[in-house]
Structure formats: C-alpha cells, structure tokens
Amino acid sequence: MWSFYRHRRHFFQVRFIIPYLYSFSGPIPCVKAVDLGVILDATESVGKFNFNISKKFALALVNSMKIAPGASHLALMVYNIYPTMLVSFNEADKQNPSVIKGILQGTEKLKGRTFTDRAIKLAGDKMFTVEGGERPDKQDVLVILTDGRTNKDSLPYENVNQPLRVSIFIFTD
Question: Please, what are the domains in the chain?
Fold first, then answer.
C-alpha cells in the first residue's frame, strides 16, 4: 500500500494496494515548488519485490519534479523498527535528481518489525521543521509507501500525527 499525506493547508491520506503500482507509468509533472518528504517502509512484511516497486514509484516522483536548490526539495526516510533519514531538505548537495536516484537505488530492504508511527513522528519532529530545511513559503507533501501493517505495539496515528496536523481519509480498492 502507499499512503499519501499532505500537511499544512490541505490534509489527506490515500491508500492503494501496492500491486497497482507495478503498472504505474509516472505522475503528471509537478511544476510548483514543494517540500516533498518520501518515507519507504523497508520491513520484512513488505518483501523485496514490493520494496523495489516502492523505490520505482519514488523514482517516478523524483522524475516528475524539478528538484534543485531554488525549486522543489526532497527529504527521504526508510524505516523498520526505527526510522532513518537518508536525505534532509537542508542538504543542498543532495537536492539533485541524480544524487537522489543513486541514494534510492542503493537503499536496501531492512529486516525487522514495522513501526510506521515512529516514521510519522520523526517526519513531524525532524523532517518537516525549519531546522530540517523545511521552507515555510512552500507547501509540504509527505508520501508514505507501506503495506499498511504497522506493529500492534505502535502508537495510534492520531497521537503521532499532531506535529504534522494531518487528517486521514482512507480509500481502498
């Protein structure tokens, strides 16, 4: 499944079954500069095949945008039990599509249990902050690519969504 969060002015979450991404040809090019956060679920439950599909989808997002210091910025995180930031908005040397593609292609699936709540919390506490390079004059968009199976010990999303001010709407097929 992939989840799409948009925070600040307009808020929503959409979930789709991950096999539909296999035939995904790519999004319509984005011409507006945004701060785009991408979080990849790299846990055992996702599996290698679906993890690679998630990486291809993230690459399609990168290809649909102009990522540069004066344009859109991208932050990238992977998670299992603990989330790990791979790229922050404030890393100017990484705000380059070739660099981001290299990082994505080199990202391996992790082992371990799924704690999506921790990734969402880190997005609110670190990714989408001024210290993390978030630009107050740009719209913030957060995309979470996951199979949707968080650990039973995870905190409820409404508890960790607060810093992001996210409302959740779920669409399934």
Answer: 2-164 (3.40.50.410)
Q: Cα(140)–Cα(172) distance, rounded to whole angstroms?
A: 24
pLDDT at 87 over 70: yes
Task: Report the predicted TM-score, pTM, of the whole model to 2 decimal places.
Answer: 0.78
CA pair distance 38, 104, nearest whole angstrom? 11
Pair 15, 171: CB distance under 8 Å: yes
* Residue 129's pLDDT band (cuts 50, 70, 90): very high
CA nearest to 114, candidates 143, 93, 83: 83
Give the chain's length: 173
Task: Please state, in angstroms and as integers, the Cα–Cα distance from residue 3 to each residue in 71, 96, 102, 158, following that order.
Answer: 24, 24, 23, 15
On whether the CB atoms of residues 84 and 78 are closer than 8 A, the answer is: yes
Ramachandran quadrant class, 26 (left: phi over 0; alpha: psi -120 to 50; beta: rest): left
- Which tokens is 144 given? 């979470």
